[in-house]
Amino acid sequence: MLKWVLAVLALFAALAAALVVFTITDVIHPQTWVLSYAEDHPRWSAYLRTYERGQDVEAAMEAKEQKLAAAWDDLETVREELDQQQRELDHRSAALDSREQELENRRQEIEHLRAEVKGLQAEEENISRLADMYSEMRPTEAAAIFERLDLDVALNILRAMNARSSSAIMAELDPDLAAQLSRQLTEGRQ
Length: 190
Known about the structure:
There is one protein chain. By secondary structure, the protein is mostly helical. The protein has a domain at 124-190. It is 89% helix and 0% strand. The chain contains seven helices and no strands. It has helices at 2-24, 30-40, 45-136, 139-146, 151-160, 163-172, 175-189. The longest helix is centred in the middle third of the chain and has 92 residues, at 45-136. The relative contact order is 0.04.
């Protein structure tokens, strides 16, 4: 009798193994058998409704996961676009900063040139006043002062004077100094 019990147990084990293998290889579908059995027996219908709701929830969850994955992909695309735009803005900002610095340097250069021009204008006014003053002096007195002046200052004053006054002063100067100033005056006009 033990042999028969063992044989029946071996038969059940073989059937269970075959059922598992056929289920894994998708040859048979025991799940559909269980569902059709539960539909036929009212006692199992509550369990069947719970199972169906679970299936619906799983399907809804999967759909939401797909939507979330699509939204995530869209967000990644938007993030990449924003990063690209940020890089472009950074590049433009750097270019603008560079241009702004260049403009500031030019502004400072212009201010420096304006200051130089004002200085030159003031110097020219001073030389013009000195020329007027020396023109009003006696040529001998003016010549005595000219002999002590720096050569460039004397040249600038002579250039600002009218020809009659400058010639009268030049006539009273030391001949060597008068010759040197004359050479400088002719070189300056060419």
